[in-house]
Amino acid sequence: MAYAAKFGTKKRTGGINITPFVDVLLVVLVIFILTSNASIPGIKVDLPKASSSVALEKPKTKAITIDNAGQVFLDAYPVTLPELEERLRTEKALTPDFPVIVRGDAAVQYAKVVEVLDLLRRIDLNQIGLVTGKPA
Fold this sequence. Notes:
The protein is α/β, with parallel strands linked by helices. The chain has helices at 2-7, 19-36, 81-94, 110-123, and strands at 62-66, 72-74, 77-79, 100-104, 128-130. A hairpin with a 2-residue loop joins strand 2 (72-74) and strand 3. Helix 3 (81-94) runs parallel beside helix 4 (110-123). The longest helix is centred in the first third of the chain and has 18 residues, at 19-36.
């Protein structure tokens, strides 16, 4: 009799099995990491380096890129300065306070970047950021 009580069926203790929950959280974390890298569309340019930078990525951020040839792009689409002004005015009518980032190639002439910044001032956009690269 002592043998049956000692080696019989064991009662299961109460508790929550969290292994499936941890698995789901790890999958969600991996998906978040992969999608956070694809944030702002644009043309690849050689950015000037700065000692510190602030992230200005928001969901409705518009990216203006100026490549080394002086060509202006709005979200990876080539535009002229009048087209850029028209599109930004249209966006401002829909969303009054949207952020804009300006990405200028390190080899581009400073005057071209100033033209774009002057255009943004005329449109009365307040959330403007200049993108720089991290120092090597």
